[in-house]
Amino acid sequence: ERSKEQRLLRLAHEVEACRRCPLYRTRTRAVVSDGSHKARLVFVGEAPGREEDLAGIPFVGAAGQLLTKMIGAIGMRRTDVYICNVLKDRPPGNRAPLPEEMEACLPFLEEQLAIVRPTIICTLGAVATKALLGPHISITKVRGQVRDYHGTLLIPTFHPAYLLRNPPAKKFAWEDLKKVKRLLETGG
Ligand code: URA
């Protein structure tokens, strides 16, 4: 059997060559993942922004710096977790992902999750949460709840970009992350 690392490398090459939707025309770099293929915790965001598009690394801009702090707040480092997005290419001007872009790109995320097989998936914001749990889910209703994604625990929380615009919501994200940490410690 191929190793997780080999399978993820092959997937990354596929993403970099992908032309399933028009976003490849405007991207600088495809943004596949950061962190460890051995991670027990996966964070799923929405799509690369300007800084991520330039760097080819997810969550390196302002929201990314907050995510890095959130990971630190539960005693972990970015290299202990696996970080990815629903869309691998930046939507121009950071507009919201289109349904057809999400449909085209979702198989890559599903494959990433199937290869890494974490104990917990933490979705960041409405787009990632809907992508994995279904379009009728409300992030304000489900955040902090333990859900199921194909047999894996999934906990939605607020997107760090939302937290930057709404600092009072940070206390809820902090509660959600403490729950994530507790579940990781008890083995899920
Ligand atoms: N916002 C996201 O959802 N993903 C990133 O990679 C950066 C910002």
Written account of the structure:
The chain has 188 residues and is α/β, with parallel strands linked by helices. It is built from eight helices and six strands. Strands 1-3-2-4-6-5 form a six-stranded mixed sheet, sandwiched between helices. A hairpin with a 2-residue loop joins strand 5 (147-149) and strand 6. Helix 1 runs antiparallel to helix 4 (99-116). It binds uracil. Uracil (URA) is lined by residues 45-49, 52, 58-59, 61, 63-64, 85, 161.
Secondary structure layout plus pairing:
Layout: H1 4-16, E1 34-35, E2 41-45, H2 50-55, H3 62-73, E3 82-85, H4 99-116, E4 120-124, H5 125-133, H6 139-142, E5 147-149, E6 152-157, H7 160-165, H8 170-185
Parallel strand pairs: 2-3, 2-4, 4-6
Antiparallel strand pairs: 1-3, 5-6
Helix pairs in contact: 1-4
The chain binds uracil (URA).
Arithmetic mean of pLDDT:
97
Bound molecules: uracil
Spans of at least 5 consecutive residues whose pLDDT stays below 50 are: none
- Per DSSP, the total helix count is 8
